[in-house]
Design goal:
Layout lengths: L7 H6 L16 E10 L6 E4 L3 E5 L3 E6 L5 E6 L8 E8 L2 E7 L8 E7 L5 E7 L5 E8 L2 E7 L10 E5 L5 E6 L2 H7 L6 E4 L5 E4 L5 E6 L5 E2 L1 E7 L8 E2 L6 E6 L4 E9 L12 E3 L17 E10 L2 E9 L5 E9 L7 E3 L15 E11 L2 E9 L11 E7 L6 E2 L19 E11 L5 E10 L6 H4 L3 E7 L6 E7 L11 E9 L5 E8 L6 E8 L5 E2 L8 E3 L12 E8 L2 E7 L1 H4 L3 E6 L1
Parallel strand pairs: 13-17
Antiparallel strand pairs: 1-21, 2-3, 3-4, 4-5, 6-7, 7-8, 8-9, 10-11, 11-12, 12-13, 14-15, 15-16, 16-18, 19-20, 20-21, 22-42, 23-24, 24-25, 25-26, 27-28, 28-29, 29-30, 31-32, 32-33, 33-34, 35-36, 36-37, 37-38, 37-39, 40-41, 41-42
Keywords: Signal
Protein name: Glycosyl hydrolase family 32 N-terminal domain-containing protein
Length: 593
């Protein structure tokens, strides 16, 4: 027996401190939308997936296929005499495909994990288990541990089915059984598949039903908590969350030998928008442009507007000739947005090696109380590729909203470091607001941008999600996971959603403006969504319903429009946003019709 080699991936995810247990939407609101369905001969037991491929798994054969085209790439079949009898599931971890295997229904029962090269499907190693009563049905890698389900079959035995957590040395660190409400749906068979979703919830399947059971895992041994049963366009068997495409789940329909791709959604996502907005661009755009020889000589980006009497204070990030980005503020009379006075930079970037050593961008200033302001900003460390160069959100403080100082050298929010999380490799700002809750209390909410992936393909390099964190003091934040994901069915936001600006109206409704990247333009446009609770967001019934500003003309905003900030101005709304090159051409404004 060869031991499993633990890679650097294990060390990486051991740094994750705790579970993120809130789902993309409240469990009772979850739905799944079918995206694709393809017939492949190996789709008999399960499916696994990585950034480029999906793996259809049958008892003794695995087929690797290209995502998107379903083109066959490689295949493995167990040779005569092989102990690989009954492959049940698979997960790809750092280039290796780990498959659960048993010889069920033979006796004595034998269990193993079979390990393959994900690229070639060459068989590499085997990990055998002493457990000989329950059959291994699925394996997961989650939060620095291995998770394996042992299934028992039949009316008399299915209640013995249980889940085990192992450390890196394959020592048991926790054991959980399934609740009766789920067992009843497993019968007359047992648990077939399981996978941890993008925000830490466990999704499991039975053998035949077209549904998923959503569970939470208690911190100590005991019984799993059943929080929802969600219909899905599959028929039980092994499932796999696509950790390179947050919110996308793969499953199979065994009787038809089909692999099904579906997307996590909720019941209100495509409901009618109640207060959509149309915008009139200002004829003087851009109203705030870069200045030669100043700290904002190459870029004016990420506007954030605050009103002080009859004056607008427009916080923004300026780029200089040495590729440093720092934060400044421009002020103008509300009735004349052609004349701006600028101050900045408000503070220096961090010291060499710090999270904000290279850039301080995406400012959003919030008055916490009469004598205290917070300015949240996104740091760029000057190292790393793509969005991994953004390792944290920092904070500066002020007593008057004018004079600022950095609040220490540590960020208030950082990436999770856990592959498959919506903020796994990078993190950036959005907006902070104090929310009025139904019980009369208030809560600080931070809608921020999570960066889950990196890579050469545009969809990996630019994928972003909108996440939520909550706080009682606006300093210490608890992550609640993603609240909005890219929409693969709308070509202006099928790659990324980011930079959410959220308002709560007097009647309690939430409104969000955000930057979206899609294949239609390849760059940013500005979109809109609404919510009754700030968690479940409506995008409108049909494509383009929520598209509010798109690239236009042949000048400063022909390539992209992005990073909106919105403020009420009398009977209208005022938006500031930036254009080409992430602000190379400056900031413009628009007013609602």
């Amino acid at each position: 027996m060869n031991p499993i080699r633990l890679s650097s991936f294990a060390a990486l995810i051991l740094t994750t401190a705790s579970f993120i247990v809130s789902p993309v939407s409240t469990a009772s609101e979850m739905t799944f939308r079918q995206l694709h369905r393809v017939s492949v001969p190996e789709a008999h037991q399960a499916v696994a997936v990585d950034a480029s491929s999906f793996y259809a798994i049958s008892n003794r054969t695995i087929g690797r296929y290209e995502k998107g085209t379903s083109r066959p790439l490689s295949k493995w079949t167990a040779p005569d005499g092989s102990p690989v009898i009954h492959l049940n599931s698979g997960i790809v971890v750092e280039g290796r495909l780990y498959c659960a295997n048993s010889n069920w229904p033979k006796s004595p029962l034998k269990n193993s994990i079979e390990i393959f090269s994900a690229e070639t499907l060459e068989h590499l190693e085997r990990k055998e288990f002493d457990e000989t009563e329950g059959a291994i049905n699925w394996i997961q890698r989650h939060r620095g541990s291995w998770w394996i389900a042992f299934a028992f079959y039949g009316e008399a035995n299915v209640r013995r089915t249980y889940l085990v957590r192992y450390d890196n040395e394959w020592r048991k660190t926790g054991t959980w059984t399934f609740p009766e409400s789920v067992i009843e749906r497993f019968l007359p068979n047992s648990n077939s598949g399981g996978a941890f979703g993008p925000n830490g919830r466990l999704f499991v399947t039975g053998h035949d039903h077209a549904e998923l059971y959503v569970l939470t895992v208690p911190e100590t041994d005991g019984e799993l908590n059943h929080i929802a049963t969600v219909p899905a366009p599959i028929a039980g068997q092994g499932i796999a969350w696509d950790r390179s495409d947050i919110g996308t789940l793969f499953g199979i329909v065994r009787s038809r030998r089909e692999v099904v791709t579906m997307r996590l959604s909720h019941r209100e996502e495509y409901a009618t928008l109640k207060q959509p907005v149309q915008w009139i661009r200002d004829e003087n755009n851009p109203v705030l442009a870069p200045r030669k020889g100043e700290f904002d000589s190459t870029r004016v980006m990420n506007p954030w507007v605050v009103r002080a009497g009859e004056t607008y204070r427009l916080f923004y990030a300026g780029g200089d000739d040495h590729k440093k980005h720092r934060i400044g503020v421009a002020t103008a009379a509300i009735n004349d947005l052609t004349q701006w006075d600028r101050t900045g930079p408000l503070f220096k970037t961090g010291a060499e090696g710090s999270f904000d050593a290279n850039w301080c961008v995406l400012p959003h200033a919030v008055q916490i109380r009469d004598d205290r302001w917070h300015l949240y900003y996104t740091g760029n460390a000057g190292k790393g590729t793509g969005l991994s160069a953004f390792p944290g959100i920092g904070m500066a403080t002020s007593s008057d909203g004018m004079t600022w100082s950095r609040s220490g050298d540590q960020p208030v929010l950082t990436p999770s470091g856990e592959h498959g999380d919506p903020d796994a490799i990078g993190i950036a700002g959005g907006s902070v607001l104090q929310v009025r809750q139904k019980d009369g209390s208030t809560q600080w909410r931070f809608y921020y941008t999570g960066c889950p992936t990196t890579g050469k393909p545009h969809a990996l390099n630019q994928q972003k999600t909108i996440c939520l964190a909550v706080s009682d003091d606006a300093i210490h934040w608890e992550k609640r996971g993603a609240v909005m994901l890219r929409d693969p069915e709308r070509d202006y936001e099928d790659i990324a959603v980011a930079g959410a600006v959220v308002h709560q109206e007097p009647d309690g409704m939430f409104r969000m403006w955000y930057s979206a990247i899609g294949t239609r333009w390849g760059f940013y446009s500005i979109c809109y969504a609404e919510s009754d609770d700030g968690i479940h967001w409506r995008r409108g019934t049909k494509s383009d319903d929520n598209l509010q500003l798109s690239p236009a003309g042949d000048g400063w905003e022909k390539q992209m429009v992005e990073y909106p900030t919105v403020i009420r101005e009398g009977a209208h709304l005022r938006m500031f946003y930036c254009g080409n090159g992430y602000g190379n051409s400056g900031v413009g404004t628009a007013i609602s019709k």
